[in-house]
Amino acid sequence: MKILIIEDEPEMLDNMRRTLEREHYNVETATNFKTASTKLGVYSYDCILLDITLPDGDGLELLAQIKSQGKGGGVIVVSAKDSLDDRLKGLNLGADDYLAKPFHNAELNARVKAVLRRLYFDGHKHIEIGNMVIHPENREIIVDGDQIEFNRKEYDILMYMITNKNRLVTKAALAEHVWGDHIDQADSFDFIYSQIKNLRKKLSKSNITVEAVYGVGYKLNIA
């Protein structure tokens, strides 16, 4: 899962980033309105942690921008402003949750997981697809009762394919979402092929297959 943190306080930003990276999220950051707006215009995210007060703009304007783009993903407004008016403005603009500073790391994790469950897993703590059961909170995958070990990238690719199971996923979108926005520095997408090859081997006992669409990308098929 890919997360964008929009926060201008360096210590707070670093703490949030490290906390979420420990949970194996792909985390990107922006420290001001301009950088955040640029990233939101180019990339997509599963969850966005948005500070209302930024040095060069209003976070609520970014929230309106996020919703107008219709890219999906959850938004948690994170701010020291804890007034009812601010909460109502954020929620009315489409925010999924509101987290007031200061907060504990455990609460940050819980709020992010709750938003992701509601958006992608119908509120459930596990996902059932055919003969496969996935527990996202501990990254456990079970096929016909047997646990299958996936490395981090294989798991991230599978989860991205599952959350886009009704869509054709381009190689560029897959690479950017799993490897981050620095992927545009890569010369090719050859590194994806080996990960997909390994993923297919590990899915061999499941009724899920990853179909290659020549020259475009991949599609998840469920028997």
From TrEMBL:
Pfam family name, one: Trans_reg_C
Domain OmpR/PhoB-type residue range list: 124-222
Claim: Transferase is one of the keywords in the record: no
Keywords linked to the UniProt accession: DNA-binding, Phosphoprotein, Transcription, Transcription regulation, Two-component regulatory system
Any Gene Ontology biological process: regulation of DNA-templated transcription
DNA-binding region coordinates: 124-222
Biological source species: Winogradskyella epiphytica
Name assigned to this protein: DNA-binding response OmpR family regulator
GO cellular component, one term: protein-DNA complex
Keyword Phosphoprotein attributed: yes
GO molecular function: phosphorelay response regulator activity; transcription cis-regulatory region binding
PANTHER family named in the record: REGULATOR OF RPOS
Domain Response regulatory residues, every copy: 2-116
4-aspartylphosphate PTM positions: D51
Domain of life: Bacteria
Signal peptide range in chain numbering: none
Matches recorded under InterPro entries: CheY-like_superfamily, OmpR/PhoB-type_DNA-bd, Sig_transdc_resp-reg_receiver, WalR-like, WH-like_DNA-bd_sf
Gene3D superfamilies: 3.40.50.2300, 6.10.250.690, Winged helix-like DNA-binding domain superfamily/Winged helix DNA-binding domain
